[in-house]
Amino acid sequence: MNPLTPDMQQQLAQLRDIHLPQAIAWWPPALGWWLLLALLLLTAGAWGIRHYRRRVLRASLAALAQLSPNVDDATRLASDLSQLLKRVGLYCGQPVANLSGQAWAGYLIQGGWSAEQADFIAFASYANPKDCTQPDWPALQRTGRRWITQQFSQKGRRQWRQTVSRTASQ
Fold first, then answer.
1. Domain count within the chain
2. The pLDDT of residue 26
3. For residue 76, what are the domain limits?
4. Is the pTM value of this prediction over 0.85?
5. Band of pLDDT at residue 166, cut at 50, 70 and 90
6. pLDDT category of residue 159 using cuts at 50, 70 and 90
7. Is 140 part of a structural domain of the chain?
8. By C-alpha distance, which of 97, 95, 144, 138 is closest to 118?
């Protein structure tokens, strides 16, 4: 063994102990945690929007099911059904607020209603209750359920297209 020279002993005395690094702080989190948080927020937001839209769809379909054909007053049924369809159309972003008469009937026909059904919805609420004949209520309900469901499914696609086109134009 080599004995330490006085110069080496002096240098050895000047050595200090090992310094440990500081503890890693928990804030601010790393980039991966921020990305995970953003992904969780987007997922929760998308789920919330979807849940809300489904709830509104179920409420609209329930309102349609609650409408019942009154033997005495077909005009009331036409008025209530027209109001419900316009509320659904407005919620789904359709320009139906100012439609009435022939324009409303034409819009309904384009949406899959038969001409007879569309005329009943558009014009029967203004007719004399004694002159108004009772419609085929089960067919009206089936077409109404299909139309309401179709409006809600188109709303999501329409909003997605608008978002994509706005993003592309910027």
1. 1
2. 84
3. 72-151
4. no
5. low
6. low
7. yes
8. 144
